[in-house]
Each structure stands twice: as structure tokens, then as C-alpha cells.
MurR/RpiR family transcriptional regulator
Amino acid sequence: MSDSPAARLQALFEGHRLTPTQRRIAHSMVRRAGDVPFLSSVELAELAGVSQPSVTRFAVALGFDGYPALRKHLREVAPAEPAAGAPGESSYNEYQQAVLGEIENLRHLAELLADPGPVERAGRLLASSRPLPVLGLRAASSQARGFAYFAAKVHPDVRLLDEGGTMLTDRVDAAVRAGATVLLCFALPRHPREVVDALAYARDAGLTVVTVADSAFAPVAKHSDLLLPAAVGTGLAFDTACAPMLLGRVLLEAMCDGLPDAQARLEEFDTAAASRGLFVE
């Protein structure tokens, strides 16, 4: 695991049962890891969109006497100055700021991938499951659909689960009966209750759950055997998901490494596509 400020913060939060409000605070701290040791409790509360007493309760939940003790600890383990903004950053308009926010999310993802172990493990799990159900509802449906589209080029049996309702558990049951051992889930805010319920059901049915979520503290975490975080952008009216999309492609690469015939399948598809004139040059 990278020894970045974000990684050290995540290690601090691991093993604690956090409420949804506390998970929001933790997520905000990870995203602003370089600045957090220098923020007051009021500033952190504003950053996370919670009340100041919630920040105090969060610090106590982590085992500190209060927020000052937590901030003192953070300054000791990460005694760096806050990162300086880019030249002219204050002159950026809201659209540029949203793009810069996504670039920062991608940098954070790159730091997490300094330890490739979790992604490599996830790739092996996905490659081993026949069939492989891929779940994503509402905001995450496009992530699941994109992954399933490309995964089907190399994996013999990918089953997209992008519609909720009473049929969802039926389709999970069908995948288990067909031999599935792993379910891949893309979970993005706002997190639908039926996704949380579906993951709980999948684990009870014996599936190993691999989840790509916006935070290690997302509501789906407690129902995931392996959670891979990738932050979403919040600078626009609707969240942006560049980092989760890229993490999905990284997972595809890791899955291909676990499928010995992946390259042969890709070449077979290319040959068939050329003979059918499927794409224009």
C-alpha cells in the first residue's frame, strides 16, 4: 500500500464501524488528505456537509478524546504543509474546477494502485467465475454495462444485472445455479437501497462480492468481500465518475491476465468483425 497521506488516513479508519455521516466525513478527509491536518472542526464539517458536533463524535468513534486530539495525531503522522494550488487556480471557472477535481481523483487512484495486490486478486476472482454476474443500478448502470460489454469479448459468460426490482434476486439465483462464484458490483452515489440488499442476498447465496465504489466507507462496504475505491467528482450538478470508469478498465486488464485464452478470443473477434465489415476505418 502506498504511504501517501490518503493511504494513511484510510488505514486509520479501517476496522471502525462508522455511521453514514461518519463515512461521509472519512470520505471527505481522504479526498483532501493533504489539507485535513490543518482544518478546524468547523471547516471539516463544512467540507463534509455535516454538523460540527458530528465531527467531534467522529473523532471519538476513532478513539480520540475529541477533534483536537485527532488533528494533532494527523499532524504528527503527516507533517507536511498543505499542497499549494496550481498557478492561477483561483481564476479557473466552475467547469475547469470540475475537470481539475477529476484529475485529482485520478491521481488518488494512481496512488492506491501503487499496491496492485487488491486489483490482481480481484482479476483472478472475476476470471474464475462461470458465469460472471456484473451488477450496477441507476447511476452505476453505465459503469456495469461498459465493463460487461468489454468483458464479454474475453470472458465466456458475462451476465449484466442493470435492472432492479423483484427480478434481480431471481437473476442472482440463476447465476448461482449456473455455477457463478463471484459477483462484480459497481456502486456509486446516491447508493440505491436495492443494491445494498442485493449484495447481502448474493453473499448469503454463496457468492464472493467484488465492489467498485466511490469510497471505502460506502454503504456497500459491509456486504463486500473485496472493495476497490475510486472517488467520484462532485463539482457539477451531477456526479462524474472518471475514476470508477478507469478502475473498471484496470479490472478488465487484471481479469484478462487471469484468462489464458483472452488474447485468442480478442483476435477471433477482430477477425470476425473484419469479415462482417462491422466497423468503418
Remarks:
- Residues 151 and 252 are 7 Å apart (CA to CA).
- The domain at 112-272 is CATH 3.40.50.10490 (Rossmann fold).
